[in-house]
Amino acid sequence: MRGPHNIWRLIRTGATFQRTGAMGAALDAMAAPPRVRLAARILGWPFAWLGYKGDPALPPITRAITALGPAYIKFGQIMSTRPDVVGADLANQLRMLQDRLPPFPTRTARAMIEAELGRPVDTMFIDFSEPLAAASIAQVHHARRADTGAEVAVKVLRPGIEAAFRRDLDAFHFAANMIEWLSPATRRLRPRDVVSHFESVVMGELDLRLEAASASEFAENTKNDEGFSIPRPHWELSGRQVLTSDWMHGIPMGDVAAVRAAGHDTDAIAVRLIQLFLGHALRDGFFHADMHQGNLRVAADGDIVAFDFGIMGEIDEYARRVYAEIIMGFIQRDYHRVARVHFEAGYVPSDRNMAEFARALRAVGEPIFGADASRISMANLLAYLLEVTEKFGMQTRTELILLQRTMVVVEGVARSLDPQMNMWQAARPVVEAYIRDNLGPRAAARDMLRIIQTLGRFGPLMPDLIESRLTELAHPTRTLRVEQGRGFLWPLAGVALLALGVVLGLVAG
Q1: What does pTM read for this prediction?
Q2: To bridge 51 with a disulfide, which of 19, 59, 134, 481 should be the other Cys (CB 3.0-4.6 Å)?
Q3: Contact status, residue 431 vs residue 278, Cβ threshold 8 Å
Q4: pLDDT tens across 130-161, in order?
Q5: How many separate domains does the chain show?
Q6: Does 202 reside within a domain?
Q7: Strand order in the sheet with 296-298
Q8: Shared domain check, 471 and 369
Q9: Contact 58, 66 (CB under 8 A)
Q10: Set 99, 168, 290, 308: catalytic member
Q11: Does 495 lie in the same domain as 425?
């Protein structure tokens, strides 16, 4: 039933790209195969008059995407984090997308707040302002709490935005299926998975309770970070379509002249920004993945203030340890160590040549170390590393790509504050501290304690599990069962004995 609607949306999309001059640029940037190019031309050129004009002051691709509306803007922003899919040049262009749209009426926002929270706005807020900022998904108002007088920011979803996004998402899924059908070679880029990833991100942003949860968790993680503040959510005044949080004063970090005029040390702020970001990624495995200048301010006391927690990045503990060793290996210019870490983690297939891989890594690292401070870039290092590892057969790791693309943005903000900062010097103490705390004897002791705790949780199940396995060993096919039993029982026994030994050692100590 939705097929004709999706085809019409694709025609309108192709026509807009054709009319704005973006079609050729987009196809070239993604190195689109001939069949996809032909299909795109068919969908665009004959119907160009149906396309939106867009703002002629914008570059073609950003002009086309902005003209197509909120879902396309958000999709473009997320694709800017996936150079492995759209290519590095197009990813850089998409990063320039401005997520700004005309606001919707304040009376509509007030009606949505009342419907969501079940109370008249005037009983919850006073001095409720006109919209101060409007983006593709929501807009923000300034207000004061009626009960305490505290200043708050009230974020309200655009009316009907979820239904509009779902319509466009349906068309995106349809387009991904068409691309894979027209060109099987594109399946290596997994278009359908890309659209599914976009859907999961956007659906999360369309439920402001999830953003509040991210803000709350991020606040807990960073409460002891000196020189860093974030607005905390007010849960009792928040819901699916409304998010109320602290109002944070400060100078936009993009206004460098104003930051300096206020007496702040911009060089120190730049270093702190890099160290905070790396600390959140390595220490917590949970980092702000949209740290552009519009989401950062400098408070009167010099604190860095971060906003908007709709897009967050996560890295599991094992991957964090691997990445820390990789970064430290590059800092120490120990390319054999970096290569060994990749092989041990299984990132590079074991049938590849480790020495050859180490030389390829040297070719990545040495030119960067040979550059002056203003050209040393951790983001470029990670980008080159992705290229090399892909050549050696490493599967795409989405979390590393998101980390790398966020690093690009954070470095850009830091360099706007201090063009001469040395990224390695800024990063080194954070990485060294992480390695000291997470890869030494103390880390091993913590890991062993977690093993003991896990065994303790499953302890009540152990007798039944062992009895069940022993019963299997009594089966007539004894030889096979014995081998299976050994494969199960001996590692379990070994872990249990090792854990017991650690416990006894701690007690004895």
Answers
A1: 0.72
A2: 19
A3: yes
A4: 999 888 889 999 999 999 999 999 999 999 88
A5: 4
A6: no
A7: 228-229, 304-306, 296-298, 251-252
A8: no
A9: yes
A10: 290
A11: no
